[in-house]
Amino acid sequence: MDDSGHPGSCEDVGVDRPSISAFFPCHNEAATVEPLVRQTIAVLGEIASDFEVIIVDDGSTDATPTIADRLVAELEVVKVVHHPTNLGYGAALQSGFRTASKEWVFYTDGDAQFDVKELKGIVPLIAQYDIVSCYRLQRREGFRRRLNGLCWSRLVGFVFGMHLKDVDCAFKLYRREIFDRIEMRSRGALIDAEILARAIRKGYTVGQAGVHHYPRQAGRSTGGNPRVILRAFRELLQLRGEILRDS
């Protein structure tokens, strides 16, 4: 392992360079989307055999769509999916997973609260697992958001029998074939738990790794919005039985 506690580079652990699709759900992330895309291209150029970067513009009303279109025209590895209106976090993730064409799919949020360079230490884990679900080493949010996140992770862990430290951490790597075998129904904040629960019930394995979390530098988070929270609970009640029956 390297000093961060990750296994090290692909070469260090004898893992072939994988084919990776990386995508970012974005809603009004004009200040962060371009630096994030360019940094991701640089990282994937070091660790992937081939790759693509997908921007999912979830009905942004700022300059995000314009920036995304310019990057697509400039960089052949970049794609964009535009939602004409804001459909929600779950819908944005669904679009990213369905658009991805490579063997593995990585996503993180477009607000750049994670360092995509930490993907270098995560990729070697695919030699052992079908999914790498990361957890935040220290959440850079207010006390209420941290408490809500802890309670939510424990709740969905109890409901679905999953023993994961941070279900909603937006730094995950999936084997792409999973999305050919599961149905995604949630259009809100339940989406992470739904995907993990359905994949585990299909027999896919999950590894965990810690990543650093940084304060939001621009834009506004909607994760603590009471409507978002209520929607997540409503979806949990609606989909619980269906997800538990998935096999």
Features:
247 residues, alpha/beta, Spore Coat Polysaccharide Biosynthesis Protein SpsA, Chain A, seven-stranded mixed sheet, 8 helices, 7 strands
The level-1 CATH class:
Alpha Beta
Task: Give the radius of gyration.
Answer: 17 Å
Would you identify the CATH architecture? Alpha-Beta Complex
Structural class per helix/strand content? alpha/beta
Number of helices: 8
Oligomer: single chain
What spatial form do the alpha-carbon principal axes imply? globular
How many strands in all? Answer: 7
The percent range for helix content is 25-40%
Give the helices and strands as they follow along the chain: EHEHEHEHEHEHHEH
Average pLDDT level:
88
Distance between the ends = 35 Å
- Spans of at least 5 consecutive residues whose pLDDT stays below 50 are none
Q: Strand sequence of the main sheet, in spatial order? A: 3-2-1-4-6-5-7
The CATH superfamily name is: Spore Coat Polysaccharide Biosynthesis Protein SpsA, Chain A
* CATH domain fold name: Spore Coat Polysaccharide Biosynthesis Protein SpsA, Chain A
Number of domains: 1
